[in-house]
């Protein structure tokens, strides 16, 4: 056995809630199929986390969970979150207590969200043109930090503050990642912010991008206010190559980007710690969609494309490309409705063809 | 002469920069035409404000300007803002120092932004359906307050904070306005926020909407996270009637809404102080577009529709409806390219037909 053929990857799998388990099941089958003859073995540990676990045990993400997850090389996550308005989940905040906690604790400072309009994908735009860009969303600071609070809560005199925290350290590392990515792509980088209004947060983003840009004279850099960026995403999405932006603007832009490229059933993402200090986490952009859970209605493509991102991150570029190609072929030839499993099976068939 | 026929409205006109003067010129002609036989006289004062004025005098908005403007019944504004990147404007921040200062000082707590897809308007969506909703954007607090700052500015250890301030007083008054508007429309109200992440700011919005909703049992209320709202705006915009949201989310959603309804060349807005303590201000959503300024390329329709909102605000509903109808007829029959003046003239011709 060669060195390469003995590589073992420890993968934490978090199927989660709602459609999470269904789409992750297909993603895992694709993963198993594509690495079958690669000499790489994936050792999987399943973690029961999410609204379901909370309702059973009252736990969202314990220190033991976190330690156990940290001992893995990467994470595959389906989706977490219970039925909206479920009174038993009122104080749970699965989003902050689980999903964001993982992103923050594992220092996933790059939230990587590619958007591509695949031939055959049903998009809402009459004349989309070519769409192929990547949003590099900051993942560990900005308005997501949870800093804030309220006084006189629940009274007519309440004041509730929410503070966006932006550090040169945090902005610079994600901006550097975005420039490096732009170098490997079409060498265009767009900073999206709202510098004319959010002058404090905006200034640090602008300064850091200007500084790092000097080291990349071959990358064409421009800037858009977030409101204008949403316009271009529907009127002229082909203008984008790499977008770098903060946690909240990135959240908004990537849902919109998912919609214009055929729905968030196709949108994959990686929560990446480029330093490798912690395992990176790959997940579809979509949520747990409890309304259609367990009905085999969910499209597993976003989860499967997240596997491609995972493979790429692990240095398994050839395998990533195979998954990517199989998905593109499948999208190009879709007809009628299929179950979650049927879509998974169709993609695996292309993979093995 | 009857009482009504002797009414005088004092109107402050701020043509501003770039295409502002061109579009305001047409808007004024429409205003003059529609009130010609109404018995209402508009006494106009022109204010030279914007990047141009700043470059000439170094002033953005003086206390004297503000006092003079306050003495009016309403304001018509074109657009303000100079050439992006003009080094002489580096420290001006026309947006904060002029536009936002007017909104804040004149307590424009309702930023009213109707979105309608007019028959004949060129939208980017393949299958838009009917689009007819109004965004009620809070105008005086949230992330727009400018609270924040930076330490170790310009160094690798900089920390820049930006604080969103939300008060029960501020949220309640705009939410009440939105519910009253929904009562007069299709009785659907959607709160847009990001309550699962911005827990402090989100909680006060959620609480206030829940409370005011109890007084409006006939209004159907729902909630969307801002990211999901952008998806629906391109995939299912007909689901919206009244959207109520904070200053920043409202900024983002209304540019996107403008794009899906045929471009921000058609999007009008009112910055309203419903209490009447200060003059309300009507302006197109678009900016000053210095790249096409002075070329008669700008579409004055958004400025003209802003006149309709102004007339409505002044209780001149019949006149507002006439402007609205003339614009709709014009949009339905547009062909080829026209100059700014030609579009204005075409709308006036319809008005007088
Ligand atoms: C569920 C939520 C906390 C999350 C976010 O806002 O980041 C989601 O919208 C996403 O984009 O992954
Ligand atoms: C120019 C800018 C300050 C303004 C805003 O953000 O409110 C504009 O985008 C708008 O929507 O009127």
Structure report:
2 copies of one chain form a homodimer. With 353 residues, the first copy, chain A, is α/β, with parallel strands linked by helices. Helix content of chain A is 40%, strand content 23%. Chain A has 2 domains: 1-108 and 267-353, Isopropylmalate Dehydrogenase (3-Layer(aba) Sandwich), CATH 3.40.718; 124-260, Isopropylmalate Dehydrogenase (3-Layer(aba) Sandwich). In chain A, the strands form 2 sheets. A 10-stranded mixed β-sheet of chain A has the order 2-1-3-12-11-4-5-10-8-9, with helices on both faces. A two-stranded antiparallel ribbon of chain A has the order 6-7. In chain A, a hairpin with a 7-residue loop joins β6 (142-151) and β7 (159-167). The mean pLDDT of chain A is 96. Chains A and B meet through α4, β6, β7, α5 and α6 of A and α4, β6, β7, α5 and α6 of B. β7 of chain A pairs antiparallel with β7 of chain B, so a sheet runs across the interface. Chains A, B: Belongs to the isocitrate and isopropylmalate dehydrogenases family. LeuB type 2 subfamily. Chains A, B: Residues 10-347 form the Isopropylmalate dehydrogenase-like domain. Chains A, B: The record marks 144, 194 as: Important for catalysis. Chains A, B: This is 3-isopropylmalate dehydrogenase.
